[in-house]
Amino acid sequence: MDLKPLLGIHHVSAITANAKENYDFYTKTLGLRLVKKTVNQDDTSMYHLFYADERGNPGTDLTFFEIPFAGRTQYGTNTISATSLRVPNDESLNYWKMRLEEYEVDHDEIMKDSGRATLAFRDFEGQRLILVSDEKNEGVAGGTPWEKSTVPKEHGILGLGPVVLTVSRLERTTKSLINVLGFREKGRYRTKIDGSEKDVFVFETGEGGTGAEVHVVECKDLPSERQGRGSVHHVAFRVENEKELKKWVKVTSELNIPNSGFVERYYFRSLYFREPNGILFELATDGPGFETDEDFEHLGENLALPPYFEDQRESIEAKLKPLDTKE
């Protein structure tokens, strides 16, 4: 079947136990825009918050499911162990280091990974994040920071950078990325993880660059991670349109990969499956986008529900703790 290459990373979805603190951190400290306040469509009793560039362009969305009683993450292997956020250049990292110190955010020192300057940090729940400089980036273009952001536009977050996967069996994930999803092996670099040097293998798709890479490291001596607040639920990769997504549904089924089939998410269409080490992958279409039911100026201000949930609005809102996002 004639499949087009995946275009890059679409979004990353993580877990928080506190929507209000989460909203404050990602909008006020990191300067992202809340482009959609909605619910988890598989469990409408919980919020699903989408933070992104000015309008939620594909490749810029970091999303969170609020699970109020989520326990602490028990870190381990077979997981998405870090999410990168792109910033314009190396000088931006100096700005961010000072900002993280000002806001008393736990962070490491600026370093070089795979030829790029990076700055690792953790949010208030231990979510593992990495700021990565786009100064030398060639590949998928970044997004556009919101003009009303708390962060100056010249240093604003442009979107998602590489996701880091930590796995127990490298060859399993490698085969899935290359043979199923069509990624290319780009190279490798050495980095220090928990005090020891590790090889990190880099894979890319589409135009490549920071917005289209997956970095994989093998750790055989750890138990599988137990997800909780501060962990990543899944990563989604970009598919051009619904027609192309339906091809992927057919291909994964022909390969006997257990999958969700075609899923309607209203703001995009999706397909879910797990790679052989158990990490949840999603393929998601670039459209229709977040302005389907809200205009640009008022994205994220009110609780948005897809039309197929609108008749349940009263009962859905009754289960949610009010979250003021009009500040």
Quick tags:
8-stranded mixed sheet, alpha+beta, 5 helices, 16 strands, 2,3-Dihydroxybiphenyl 1,2-Dioxygenase, domain 1, 327 residues, globular, 35% strand
List the helices and strands and how they pair.
Blueprint: E1 9-16, H1 19-29, E2 33-40, E3 43-52, E4 61-66, E5 79-87, H2 90-102, E6 111-113, E7 116-122, E8 128-133, E9 159-167, H3 170-180, E10 184-193, E11 196-204, E12 213-218, E13 232-239, H4 242-254, E14 263-264, E15 269-274, E16 280-285, H5 313-319
Parallel strand pairs: 1-4, 5-8, 9-12, 13-16
Antiparallel strand pairs: 1-13, 2-3, 3-4, 5-9, 6-7, 7-8, 10-11, 11-12, 14-15, 15-16
The CATH architecture can be given as Roll
**How many strands, what sense, and barrel or not for the largest sheet?**
8 strands, mixed
Query: Given this structure, which CATH class is correct?
Result: Alpha Beta
Count of distinct strands: 16
How many DSSP H or I helices? 5
Strand portion: 25-35%
Classify the secondary structure makeup into a structural class: alpha+beta
What is the overall silhouette? globular
Number of domains: 1
CATH topology: 2,3-Dihydroxybiphenyl 1,2-Dioxygenase, domain 1
Radius of gyration: 19 Å
Please trace the helix and strand order, writing H or E for each element: EHEEEEHEEEEHEEEEHEEEH
Low-confidence stretches: none
